[in-house]
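Backbone-to-sequence.
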């Protein structure tokens, strides 16, 4: 069955993004489908394009569980916002890069028309990305905050002039205590974001793992760790320590962490779903996005050629939510 309700998430403060949104709305309607905006996007875009005020709004005119695909116009920040909007549903996200690096985006703006037509025809696969379930408990053990993250959960000092003292725990056992600027707990998707800047490893999307990276730690053992996806991480802001902290998830959701607070992080049961049109190798994405030098590479020859076939990330064929196969 072809897609019928298409969510469009766009940054209204860029002229090229507004033009792209206008084009996508036109294509969706030409193909007999229904464009949908988040309410805030509809209001902002409607100030620039009055006809957008007539487009259906998510949660007002159209329910989340009727959205087939979310098309995102922007960089990784806009894609993270879209992931928030569709959280709790099964809607896959297609990113069209209108920013700079855009690691999460599937295509560039020049391929937009073809991509939208393929989405409307159901010609895509869905790739599931590991997400994190994050909980905060106070010193008495009471649950005071609960959220999730696609990229990372970071525990950071809340005061520039002082560190926080933290205890890192893996699977209920203490690993190390030290003063630091904080700690980043990252998914493979987030390994090229804050984790990367903090000196953590780049993790291929095909690898199910969680990275734990201390931030500017005053300790002999404060190296990045990579653990399996079914292990649990906890970070405590130590009693009698140097100061309080703050939890940030994807740089979008935050919660203050007083001394004695405990943050637990594990794999979420609800992954984030990305719509994929091209089985591109992650190596090529790294080279393109980071502009890595590959001059002089000759490539495999002869019998080595079969040993160097790119590994395509596992993806599941899109299926209609009612159980039937996708068209």
């Amino acid at each position: 069955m072809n897609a019928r309700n298409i969510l469009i998430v766009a940054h209204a403060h860029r002229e090229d993004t507004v033009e792209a949104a206008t084009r996508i709305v036109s294509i969706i309607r030409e193909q007999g489908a229904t464009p949908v905006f988040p309410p805030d996007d509809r209001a902002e875009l409607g100030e620039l394009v009055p006809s957008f005020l007539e487009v259906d709004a998510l949660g007002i005119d159209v329910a989340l569980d009727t959205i087939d695909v979310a098309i995102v116009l922007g960089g990784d920040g806009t894609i993270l916002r879209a992931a928030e909007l569709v959280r709790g549903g099964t809607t896959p996200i297609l990113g069209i890069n209108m920013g700079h690096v855009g690691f999460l985006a599937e295509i560039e703006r020049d391929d937009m028309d073809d991509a939208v037509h393929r989405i409307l025809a159901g010609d895509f696969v869905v790739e599931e990305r590991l997400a994190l379930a994050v909980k905060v408990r106070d010193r008495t053990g009471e649950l005071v905050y609960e959220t999730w993250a696609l990229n990372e959960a970071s525990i950071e000092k809340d005061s520039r002039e002082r560190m926080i003292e933290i205890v890192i725990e893996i699977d209920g056992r203490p690993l190390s205590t030290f003063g630091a600027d904080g700690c980043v707990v990252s998914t493979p998707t987030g390994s090229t974001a804050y984790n990367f800047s903090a000196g953590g490893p780049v993790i291929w999307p095909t690898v199910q793992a969680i990275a734990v990276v201390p931030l500017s730690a005053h300790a002999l053992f404060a190296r990045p760790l990579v653990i399996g996806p079914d292990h649990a991480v906890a970070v405590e802001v130590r009693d009698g320590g140097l100061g309080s902290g703050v939890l940030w998830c994807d740089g979008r959701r935050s919660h203050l962490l007083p001394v004695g607070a405990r943050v637990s992080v594990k794999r979420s049961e609800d992954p984030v779903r990305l719509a994929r049109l091209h089985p591109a190798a992650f190596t090529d994405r790294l080279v393109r996005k980071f502009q890595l030098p590959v001059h002089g590479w000759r490539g495999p020859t002869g019998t080595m050629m079969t040993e160097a076939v790119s590994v395509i990330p596992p993806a599941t064929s899109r299926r209609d939510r009612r159980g039937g196969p996708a068209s």
